[in-house]
């Protein structure tokens, strides 16, 4: 079962994603404090990160860029935001995908599945 870590400052979104992703057969951990992100990644070892772009204590794009620049962390990142104008910034930060809030559960599941499929294909191509 794939593990998904969700970082968002909105407790209602965290609860909704926890319930929805669990129904889609993902193991889910949610956090609201960006300061705990790297510690949680180390402990939880997620297969994917759902990351809010606008956090009170951090910028999701900068966090994504740090994760993607770290050779020791190989983690797909989907950035979430209610603002359309951050799509380009999400791409520049190295995000694997972007989803606009409020999101459709089926679209979210599609984007998550796509990230996992790309990761599997990348792993296969390393051996071929």
Compile the SSE list and pairings:
Blueprint: E1 3-7, H1 11-23, E2 27-31, H2 37-44, E3 48-52, H3 60-69, E4 77-81, H4 87-92, E5 97-100, H5 105-127
Parallel strand pairs: 1-2, 1-3, 3-4, 4-5
What does this structure look like?
The protein is of the alpha/beta class. It has helices at 11-23, 37-44, 60-69, 87-92, 105-127, and strands at 3-7, 27-31, 48-52, 77-81, 97-100. β1, α1 (11-23) and β2 form a beta-alpha-beta unit. It is globular, with a radius of gyration of 14 Å. The two termini are 25 Å apart.
The number of distinct structural domains comes to 1
Please provide the count of β strands.
5
Element-level helix/strand string: EHEHEHEHEH
User: For this structure, what is the CATH homologous superfamily?
Assistant: Response regulator
As for the CATH topology, it is Rossmann fold
Question: Strands of the largest sheet, in order across it?
Answer: 2-1-3-4-5
- Helical content stands at 40-55%
Q: For the report, how would you describe the main beta sheet? A: 5 strands, parallel
CATH class: Alpha Beta
Class from secondary-structure proportions:
alpha/beta
Taking pLDDT < 50 over at least 5 consecutive residues as the criterion, the unreliable ranges are 124-128
- In round numbers, the mean pLDDT is 90
Q: Please indicate the percent range of residues in DSSP E strands (runs of 2 or more).
A: 15-25%
N-C termini distance: 25 Å
- What general outline do the C-alpha atoms trace? globular
CATH architecture, please? 3-Layer(aba) Sandwich
How many H/I helical runs?
A: 5
């Amino acid at each position: 079962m794939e593990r998904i870590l969700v970082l968002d400052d909105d407790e209602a979104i965290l609860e909704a994603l926890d319930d929805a992703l669990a129904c889609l057969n993902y193991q889910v951990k949610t956090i609201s404090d960006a300061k705990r992100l790297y510690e949680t990644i180390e402990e939880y070892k997620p297969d994917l990160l759902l990351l809010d772009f606008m956090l009170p204590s951090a910028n999701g794009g900068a966090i994504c860029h740090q994760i993607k620049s770290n050779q020791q962390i190989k983690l797909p990142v989907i950035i979430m935001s209610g603002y359309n104008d951050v799509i380009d910034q999400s791409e520049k930060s190295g995000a694997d995908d972007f989803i606009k809030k409020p999101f459709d559960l089926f679209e979210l599941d599609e984007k998550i599945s796509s990230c996992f499929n790309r990761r599997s294909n990348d792993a296969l191509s390393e051996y071929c």
